[in-house]
Write a structure and sequence with these properties.
The complex is a heterodimer of chains A (184) and B (153).
Chain A lengths: L1 H32 L8 E9 L11 H10 L6 E8 L2 E6 L2 E6 L4 E9 L3 H8 L6 H21 L11 H20 L1
Chain B lengths: L1 H14 L5 E3 L10 H6 L1 H4 L3 E11 L6 E5 L6 E5 L15 E12 L2 H14 L13 H4 E12 L1
Parallel strand pairs in B: 4-6
Antiparallel strand pairs in B: 1-6, 2-3, 2-5, 3-4, 5-6
Classes of the chains: A alpha+beta (184), B alpha+beta (153).
Chain lengths: 184, 153
């Protein structure tokens, strides 16, 4: 049949086009699905240590802040600071946050690093770019719908939608329904 | 040919993306001091306001809130956004933010306030001693901004 030939051509070529985006969305989907357990885009590391604060006044001067930064072994430029309490300062450097207790010298450094590929994948998946990307994502969603529908009619006969295809399609629809009634 | 067009659109959308804007576009032309909001919260309740300050903390997992410094020492206000609608990056810490939203009041029971403190500690990766935690009035009455849009620079 001629319509099946065109159906399959359509399915094949749209499938090729969708490969890149499908990988981005599915890999990011797994990462974002577990957002309660980790930050899917950044690696956050915290280290605690002690520094000498005997010469630091409260609130610290700019010179004092530079002293604290170098005493902590950091070389970055200070972007901003914030006193969280009379004795506690938070110093912001690029991708680093340093909390120092000006009485005890207890310090905690939080360092943030991008997760390779995942940060970019998640940004695309969660539509951070917005603007034209919003349309791109919509087009991709429509392509997925077309792929799903044309996929039903790729094969004919016992392995097609009139045979095992019908059972598997029904199962695929049933799975989310079961979870919906189970949990919602 | 189609592949080339698709690639071109993809490239353009990345190039023209504005990474500093989150959520809705800012519409107000007047900024309200955080101290003014916290001194007279009832006056601003449920009204759209714009604040500015330094991002002093970010939700480490979901990016669903930022803590913004006020104009008075040690004072901050939380800008809470709906999960997934706006996601603030952890790298926003230390940057200047202009945020808009509506001031909301949370009146919490002891149990809810305790649960909230526990949740906040978990999000920061800190340990929480539930048994020895003493709640204050400010733990039970929380004013925060329901964030609609923000620009971080």
């Amino acid at each position: 049949m001629k319509w099946r030939k065109w159906n399959n051509i359509f399915h094949r070529d749209l499938g090729y086009l969708a490969v890149g985006l499908t990988i981005i969305y599915s890999v990011s989907g797994i990462a974002v699905n577990h957002v309660a357990d980790w930050n899917p885009s950044y690696i956050i590391e915290k280290t605690s240590f002690q520094i000498d604060v005997s010469t630091i006044q409260s609130p610290p001067s700019d010179t004092n802040i530079n002293q604290i930064v170098s005493a902590s072994g950091l070389t970055g430029i200070v972007e901003s600071t914030f006193m969280t309490s009379p004795d506690q300062i938070r110093i912001f450097l690029e991708n680093q946050t340093l909390d120092v207790n000006l009485k005890t010298g207890n310090a905690e450094l939080e360092s943030v690093d991008k997760r390779a590929f995942l940060q970019e994948f998640n940004a695309m998946h969660l539509n951070h770019p917005k603007k034209l990307w919003t349309w791109m994502a919509d087009i991709y969603a429509v392509v997925l719908i077309i792929l799903a529908v044309t996929g039903l009619f790729v094969l004919k006969g016992k392995k097609g939608i009139t045979g095992r295809g019908a059972w598997l399609t029904a199962l695929g629809i049933l799975i989310p329904l079961i979870f919906y009634f189970l949990y919602l | 040919m189609a592949k080339h067009i698709l690639f071109f659109i993809l490239l353009l959308s990345i190039i023209f993306a504005d990474k500093n804007e989150f959520g809705q576009k800012l519409t107000l032309d007047k900024t309200t001091a955080v101290s003014t909001l916290l001194d007279q919260p009832e006056k601003y309740l449920d009204k759209p306001v714009q604040i500015t300050g330094t991002v002093v903390d970010v939700c480490a997992h979901k990016g669903c809130w930022i803590e913004v410094s006020g104009d008075r020492p040690y004072e901050t206000i939380q800008v809470k956004v709906d999960d997934g609608v706006i996601i603030f990056p952890i790298t926003a810490k230390g940057k200047n933010v202009v945020a808009e939203g509506k001031l909301e009041k949370l009146s919490l029971s002891d149990e809810q306030a305790l649960r909230m403190k526990k949740h906040q500690a978990e999000e920061k990766g800190e340990e929480f001693d539930e048994k020895n935690c003493k709640l204050t009035e400010s733990d039970k009455t929380v004013y925060r901004l329901r964030g609609l849009g923000a620009v971080i620079k």
